[in-house]
Amino acid sequence: MFRNRLQQLMIGRNGPDALGRFTMFVVLLLFILSTIARNGVIYLLGLAVLGYGYFRMMSKNVGKRYLENQKYLQITDRMKNFFYNHKTYRFYKCPTCKQKVRVPRGHGKIEITCPKCRGTFIRRS
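The chain above was modelled as a monomer; its predicted structure follows.
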């Protein structure tokens, strides 16, 4: 009975998405931090973020919430790719033209060909 009413209420609404889950995680962190620090300002900030999270979940403007979520996903993907690339690749500058060249890590001593000037140099990956 309650589940059916909840399903009826959520028809046509945005519901939880990646940005919504992130805001709820931030709310949890702010509430824990406000409890530890005994600071009312942090608690009020947590309430404001909680209100924003529920606003997003209950919003019927699904298109706008979708665009907000896509922007959030683009930012997080860029951050993930930045850290991922630096862990699995090494970056060298070509001694001739100073072009940055990306090579995979863990292949020992390799000959690298610069894509810009076609010069070759040997480095350890």
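The mean pLDDT is 88.
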